[in-house]
Design goal:
alpha+beta
Length: 141
Amino acid sequence: MMDWQSLEVKVTQATKTPCDCCRAVTTDATGDLYKGNEFLAWYSARWSDGHPDVPMIITIYCGDWREGASSDQRWGTQAEVRFGPDGGCVLVDWSEKAKAKITLFTPHGRDDVLQTSYAPEFWSCIDAVLMKDPRLEHFLG
């Protein structure tokens, strides 16, 4: 059984973009997840410092990301993260609009993950990102 403590987080990049409506900064941060020396997945975390009511979205991308791999050999799964007293993580479905634009991977939703052998791995990846990516420390208080 995989657990988040056994995963290594390697931070890659972050971009900051001002919101068109209010100029609050939205951050898109990425990184890689390893189990030992083996690449497991890469991730993105997106949050807006100016909109605490908008949840962070963490996407875990698994599968074969080498050049030439097809979209059915790799997938992405999203969780919504809310902080504070009523906070928590929730697996979310991709919107139909977002799914229509995705060609590089297969978007996995709740029905693709819940009650599967992948679910514990996914949640271990989410926990590792939240606990080990230093760019998210300020959320954990």
